[in-house]
Amino acid sequence: MESISSIILAAGQGTRMNSAFPKVLHQLAGKPMLYYPIELTRKLNIKKRLLVIGFQAEKVKKNTSCFANDIIYVYQERQLGTAHAVLQAKPYLADFEGTILILSGDVPLLRYATTKRMLSHHKKSSSACTLLTVDIENPEGYGRIIRDCQKKITGIIEQCDLSEDQNAITEINTGIYCFNARELFSSLAEVNQENNQQEYYLTDIIKIFIDKGLLVTSITTQDKKEISGVNSRIDLARANKEIYLRNAIDHMAKGVTIIDPENTYIEDNVKIGRDTVVYPSTIITDGTEIAEKCQIGPYSHIVSSFIGTETKVYSSVVENSIVGKYTSIGPYSHIRPKSEIGDQVKIGNYVEIKKSNIEDGCKIGHLTYLGDASLDKNVNIGAGTITCNYDGKNKNTTTIEENVFIGSNNSLVAPVKIGKNSYTAAGSTITQDVPQENLAVARARQKNIANWAKNKTKK
Ligand code: UD1
Ligand code: CA
């Protein structure tokens, strides 16, 4: 395959976002906007990938480094326009002969298939430049494609430089291009700033190419959403919706039932097994794996966790944890990071579990906090029980062996160990280890004062 390099333009501030942060770091489906074009170049297997940054460059670098490991960051100190941005990449591609794919950091919905099609058209047609253009109803804000009477492209005019009759043109420049590297860099220096914004427009290169007799062609796409530029918060909200909807559609195709795809928020890089049902208003984040036949939601938030077969998570939060098979969680419970919950566990209402290991068959039905705890098989935790795991300095562990029955409203003051098959009485404050098979009673004995009420009223 012919060699391809890519340049993603992302140095601008994004003034129309009205934000203190660079536009390309705004979140789309749980990831910075830049994740999407960078991921696209990774999937295309492009070896040399450049990213032009400028506005708050260090912040952009820091927030993209985890998904941009072999990206070359190119600095554009002053944002003088898109042509100037591409020019900054020239020293890195001096000896490169081949195709340069140019993507915009603020066009995150561009599809892999379209880009692939564009690259192969570019090669087949031997174009010096291939444009991705689309006819849209409301072309406001985009550069317009100018064609002659034979429909040949002659140039691109930016919105603010349009004449009145050009204003009616509905074919727009998407900001996605393939260029012959040599022709691109030898013509770039000819672009000037003679326009209403006094910027070096990359789009001016089209006329320069045409004047040199170079071939400029275009392809289009039926999906008009994929080329939307994100320039405002409204565009951001639309792009968010579109990514979540695409992800939901992908999972449905793989056999997942999604009750209301418009109100389900599944991030990239999530696996869900067949016949799992995802109920509305559920958020599932990157790195999560959910097995088959589960019921997730409504109103659940699963953060980078594993959920086993036929498990239910109803109106609850599970963060960075592992949950086994045939288990049920919720409503209104919170599994905090580093917890491991076994099979056939029942976690009911208002239960918080933190960094704990809960073995198979445990029941933790109501209003409980377990932190730094280890529960062996078939432990029953009575309502209102808490582990007192923090002494103000250290986190201490609570160990509960198999078949233990903790009565309601216990305080388990850690470090403490409750032996196999033992019981604790309701209302106990357990401060000492309980040997196996024992009953621990750790509460004041009840005293009934005869006729107390009658005597009180007499006074
Ligand atoms: C650009 C195109 C326009 C096209 C539209 C599609 C130009 C002159 N115009 O307009 O024809 O219809 O995209 O979305 O290219 N950037 C830099 N350095 C700069 C300026 C911009 O890196 O000096 C980056 C921005 O961060 C952004 C991208 O280039 O990611 C596009 O810039 P933007 O200002 O958004 O251009 P548009 O006005 O949208
Ligand atoms: Ca833009």
Name its key features.
alpha/beta; binds uridine-diphosphate-N-acetylglucosamine; 39 strands; binds calcium ion
Describe what this molecule looks like in 3D.
The chain is 17% helix and 30% strand. It is built from 8 helices and 39 strands. It has a 16-stranded parallel sheet that branches. The longest helix has 21 residues, at 233-253. Bound molecules: uridine-diphosphate-N-acetylglucosamine (UD1) and calcium ion.
Q: Helix fraction?
A: 10-25%
Main pleated sheet: 16 strands, parallel
Proportion of residues in β-strands:
25-35%
Instruction: Compute the number of strand runs.
Output: 39
The total count of helices amounts to: 8
Bound molecules: uridine-diphosphate-N-acetylglucosamine, calcium ion
Report how far apart the termini are: 101 Å
Shape: elongated
**Main structural class:** alpha/beta
> How would you state the average pLDDT, rounded?
97
Poorly predicted segments: none
Radius of gyration: 31 Å
Brief overview:
The protein is of the alpha/beta class and 459 residues long. Helix content is 17%, strand content 30%. Bound molecules: uridine-diphosphate-N-acetylglucosamine and calcium ion (CA).
Ordered list of secondary-structure elements with their pairings:
Blueprint: E1 4-10, E2 27-28, E3 31-32, H1 35-43, E4 48-53, H2 57-64, E5 72-75, H3 82-87, E6 99-104, H4 112-124, E7 129-135, E8 144-147, E9 153-157, E10 171-180, H5 181-188, H6 205-211, E11 216-219, H7 233-253, E12 257-258, E13 264-266, E14 271-272, E15 277-278, E16 282-284, E17 289-290, E18 295-296, E19 301-303, E20 306-307, E21 312-313, E22 317-319, E23 322-323, E24 328-329, E25 334-335, E26 340-341, E27 346-354, E28 357-358, E29 363-371, E30 373-375, E31 380-381, E32 386-388, E33 398-400, E34 405-406, E35 411-413, E36 416-418, E37 423-424, E38 429-430, E39 439-440, H8 452-458
Parallel strand pairs: 1-4, 1-6, 4-5, 7-11, 12-15, 13-16, 14-17, 15-18, 16-19, 17-20, 18-21, 19-22, 20-23, 21-24, 22-25, 23-26, 24-27, 25-27, 26-28, 27-29, 28-30, 29-31, 30-33, 31-34, 32-35, 33-36, 34-37, 35-38, 37-39
Antiparallel strand pairs: 2-3, 6-10, 7-10, 8-9
The structure holds uridine-diphosphate-N-acetylglucosamine and calcium ion.
